[in-house]
């Protein structure tokens, strides 16, 4: 049985804030008309993004004349969806726009359409990237915690007592300290506890 594709919730664009980083010309005027008709609050700036742009929901930028120093963040780390305004399809310019983390694009000259779909696609791409980054960070954290548990088991006497006995000792320490086993392992590793040494003192709880 084939599962139906999950329907994604479209973002509410009315009242969203958009900043256009582009030199004044008909492109800015046409894009502003489209965005205003959709219900966005629009600000156009050039040549740099002000600090206030950090509060924007979307940023449109000129991919033809843009450069890294225009943005108050490192390439690829924008805190909102970026949409490239592309006139030149020179490989170097496209590569630069991609390095900025562009989530969508509109080809220049801008006419009377294109902004709405660009906003929706950019929002979806941005959210998907953020979700993927979160999953990667969680996997890295779990992998690091697993490696810490292995180190703690070794410190608790793996060579002398065997893996099962050492792990059981770690589990009992975690229960005595009332903390997750990963946290107990981290404490043991941070103490550099070796076989035969006294167990680290359990955390002290202050009375309120």
Automatic annotation (TrEMBL):
Record-annotated ANTAR domain positions: 129-189
Pfam family, one: ANTAR
Domain of life of the native organism: Bacteria
Gene Ontology MF terms: RNA binding
Protein name: Transcriptional antiterminator
Organism (species): Rhodobaculum claviforme
């Amino acid at each position: 049985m084939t599962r139906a594709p999950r329907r994604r919730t479209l973002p509410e664009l009315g009242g969203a804030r958009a900043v256009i980083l582009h030199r004044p010309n008909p492109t800015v005027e046409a894009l502003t008309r489209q965005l205003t008709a959709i219900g966005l609050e629009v600000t156009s700036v050039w040549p740099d993004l002000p600090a206030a742009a950090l509060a924007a929901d979307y940023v449109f930028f000129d991919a033809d004349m843009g450069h890294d120093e225009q943005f108050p963040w490192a390439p690829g780390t924008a805190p909102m969806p970026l949409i490239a305004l592309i006139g030149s399809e020179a490989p170097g310019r496209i590569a630069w726009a991609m390095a900025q983390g562009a989530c969508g694009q509109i080809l220049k000259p801008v006419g009377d359409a294109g902004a709405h779909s660009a906003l929706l696609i950019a929002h979806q791409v941005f959210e998907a990237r953020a979700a993927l980054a979160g999953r990667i960070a969680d996997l890295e954290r779990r992998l690091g915690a697993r490696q810490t548990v292995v180190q703690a088991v070794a410190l608790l006497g793996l060579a002398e007592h065997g893996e099962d006995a050492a792990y059981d000792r770690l589990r009992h320490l975690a229960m005595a300290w009332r903390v997750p086993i990963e946290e107990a392992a981290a404490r043991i590793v941070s103490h550099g506890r070796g076989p035969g040494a006294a167990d680290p003192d359990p955390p002290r709880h202050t009375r309120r």
